[in-house]
């Protein structure tokens, strides 16, 4: 039996060519690889890796062309669990299902495999029919899931395009009203995207979906929308602000959040909630010394934390009406040394690791 495109595209009566799905086996035992290959090669394209390093190279090379990974728990170099951890942190397990294989049958091993993103666990000795059936079912399930994801993604892309157009208009309003450079708004979106990508690679602590990341990037353009309610003479003042003027300037966080909150019809939408958190919280600081609410640590929405760091860096290198710009290197050191207030340590690590890429991208 083979899986065809017709098996995936339910309701499609067009005749399609048979597609042989690719299976990657990572196992340092030549005997085990040979057994599994013999079981599966008639129906699938089987590729093999004899150690973790070679396996990761193949994963990076073939990407989503790999329909399934059969991964031995105990392999040379890195363990199978370490490979699975790498895949999970890189977001690969979302697209490539992993079946762990081992002669270890303890509950702790099996539970750990599932916790790290494996979809199944097969113990030795192998039973041909069991292996074949579980491999086939997993591939068919993920193939259908990918098709549904593509349909959802197309709808989301169209919706995102509409959001970008409307937010583009608002960006022009903000720039016109505030005398604020449109480049700053563009840079914030670029920096937010870069920081989020690195954050997702570095930790699964925040577990943001693709759509949530896109909503944070989209909403980042609105972080200073509340400045439309601040007097122009304060926004564009070239001298140091007085305490009274500084306090009024701080009100832009509450004004922006209020504008979004007043959209009663949409305020329960996730995009609006994310935008609200960013508008209100992008001047909060990780140690609780920010404003307007003095939130501390992860009480600050992660979207607001990312935008806060992006905003601070870009304002340092772009300058402000009452502050001169600094070099990229100076800005990086100021953020690292907490001269601009304390940011989430994990985010700062991400920022420092991609600082060269940021400089190249924005220049």
Give the gist of this structure.
With 363 residues, this protein is α/β, with parallel strands linked by helices. It has helices spanning 5-8, 30-40, 52-62, 80-89, 107-115, 128-178, 182-202, 210-220, 232-235, 243-250, 252-261, 270-281, 302-318, 328-336, 345-353, 355-362, and strands at residues 22-26, 45-49, 66-72, 98-102, 120-123.
Helix content: 55-70%
The CATH class assignment of the largest domain is Mainly Alpha
Query: What is the CATH topology descriptor of the largest domain?
Result: Hypothetical protein af1432
Based on CA inertia axes, which overall geometry fits? elongated
> How would you classify the helix and strand content by structural class?
alpha/beta
Count, helices: 16
CATH superfamily of the largest domain: Hypothetical protein af1432
Total tally of structural domains? 2
How many beta-strand runs? Answer: 5
Q: Bin the strand percentage.
A: 5-15%
Low-confidence stretches: 1-17
Biggest sheet, open or closed, and with what strands and sense?
5 strands, parallel
Sheet with most strands: strand arrangement: 2-1-3-4-5
Instruction: Report the mean per-residue pLDDT as an integer.
Output: 85
The CATH architecture designation of the largest domain is: Orthogonal Bundle
Q: What is the H-and-E element order?
A: HEHEHEHEHEHHHHHHHHHHH
- Distance between the first and last residues' Cα: 55 Å
């Amino acid at each position: 039996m083979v899986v065809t495109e017709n098996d995936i595209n339910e309701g499609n009566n067009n005749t399609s060519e048979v597609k042989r799905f690719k299976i990657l086996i990572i196992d340092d035992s030549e005997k085990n690889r040979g057994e599994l290959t013999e079981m599966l090669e008639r129906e699938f394209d089987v590729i093999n890796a004899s150690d973790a390093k070679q396996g990761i190279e193949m994963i990076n090379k073939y990407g989503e062309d790999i329909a399934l990974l059969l991964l031995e728990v105990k392999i040379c170099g890195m363990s199978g669990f370490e490979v699975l951890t790498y895949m999970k942190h890189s977001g690969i397990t979302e697209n490539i299902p992993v079946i762990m294989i081992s002669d270890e049958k303890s509950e702790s091993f099996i539970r750990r495999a599932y916790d790290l993103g494996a979809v199944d666990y097969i113990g030795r000795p192998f039973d041909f029919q069991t292996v074949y059936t579980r491999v086939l079912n997993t591939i068919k399930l993920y193939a259908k899931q990918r098709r549904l994801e593509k349909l959802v993604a197309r709808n989301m892309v169209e919706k995102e395009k509409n959001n970008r157009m409307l937010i583009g208009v608002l960006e022009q309003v903000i720039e016109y009203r505030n005398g604020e450079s449109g480049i700053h708004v563009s840079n914030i979106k670029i920096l937010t995207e870069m920081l989020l990508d690195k954050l997702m690679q570095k930790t699964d602590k925040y577990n943001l979906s693709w759509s949530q990341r896109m909503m944070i990037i989209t909403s980042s353009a609105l972080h200073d929308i509340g400045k439309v309610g601040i007097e122009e003479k304060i926004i564009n003042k070239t001298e140091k602000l007085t305490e009274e003027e500084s306090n009024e300037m701080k009100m832009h966080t509450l004004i922006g959040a209020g504008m979004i909150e007043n959209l009663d019809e949409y305020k329960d939408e996730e995009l609006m909630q994310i935008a609200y958190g960013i508008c209100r919280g992008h001047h909060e600081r990780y140690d609780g010394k920010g404003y307007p609410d003095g939130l501390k640590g992860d009480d600050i929405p992660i979207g607001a934390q990312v935008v806060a760091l992006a905003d601070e860096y870009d304002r340092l290198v772009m300058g402000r009406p009452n502050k001169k710009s600094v070099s990229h290197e100076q800005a990086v050191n100021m953020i690292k040394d907490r001269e601009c207030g304390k940011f989430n340590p994990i985010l700062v690590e991400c920022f420092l690791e991609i600082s060269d890429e940021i400089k190249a991208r924005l220049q």
